[in-house]
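Supplementary notes (optional reading)

For those who missed the lab, this is the record we used. Protein: Pyrroline-5-carboxylate reductase. Length: 280 residues.
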Amino acid sequence: MKVLVIGAGNMGLTYASAIGKSGYLKKEDLMVYDKSIELRETLKKANENFEVYDTLEECLPVSDIIFLAVKPYHNDELMAEMKEMMNDQQLVISIMAGVTIETIQKGLGINKVVRAMPNLPAQVGKGMTSYLAAPEISRIELWMVEDLLNSTGKSVRVDSQMFIDASTGISGSGPAYVFYFMESMMEAAKSMGFSDNDAKVLVSTTFEGAIELFNKNKLSPNGWMKRVASKGGTTQAALASLEDNNVKELIHDAAYAAFNRAVELGQTKEEKEQLEEVEK
Ligand SMILES: NC(=O)C1=CN([C@@H]2O[C@H](COP(=O)(O)OP(=O)(O)OC[C@H]3O[C@@H](n4cnc5c(N)ncnc54)[C@H](O)[C@@H]3O)[C@@H](O)[C@H]2O)C=CC1
Ligand SMILES: O=C(O)[C@@H]1CCC=N1
């Protein structure tokens, strides 16, 4: 089996490296293509566990499974370039936010499409991926897909594309919300007089410890909050301030903003035009 990753940025490279390290494929069976010449040259010099190709003509026709890991707005141009070289036995795994299975099937003239939504912690083997496969994909092919996806962490199979867009708002974009929270706490620490480094250690160790506790048993986040908060104490003061400022509602809105944006990114030109007509 030959696997090709198209787009060697944050996520594409993460998959190529993870699959390469998993030993699942021989080096010559794992191929990477990116349109950036500089990136290709850097990757060739890095001598990773995959082969880097300069043209799609050399690698696409011989590949069995193809990862699409370019930005959603580069997809139309890429699919137009790929279409002539595709055959209906090839299986495509798209990790692009929003872009639907139907858009890819139509754009590439094939049926076997998996839509997946991973996240950046995949880079350290702690990724969370949701995925959905078109019905044309066999059980055996699905096992292969799961092996490839699980090389970066955990995965969950969902039963509609709505859940792919929804998980984009939770786990796909989610690491950025955590970093936002960390940044806010680090800024608060610095305003209290801590050095940059101490602020970083205080915050990152607190996150690490809290996650480890959470994973330790079945206690809910609220249960853990109660264990931290003493009656009339400091934590209660902080939690009351978060409640007064509707922070939960704001986080809810942020997750929905990402979910809605994923849906919007997936709309075809015709769907967008129809919506604009209705809104007029
Ligand atoms: N960054 C993240 O945390 C996550 C990103 N995604 C999705 O993954 C996809 C990629 O995102 P990133 O890796 O962050 O983007 P990126 O910008 O880091 O990488 C995209 C790569 O695609 C290459 N590219 C663009 N057009 C191309 C073409 N026609 N042929 C070959 N290569 C081409 C670019 O040169 C670039 O290296 C996006 O669709 C995004 O929605 C999904 C989950 C998480
Ligand atoms: O921001 C984005 O559109 C992509 C999808 C999920 C994470 N990054």
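If you only remember one thing from this example: The chain has two domains: 3-160, 174-245.
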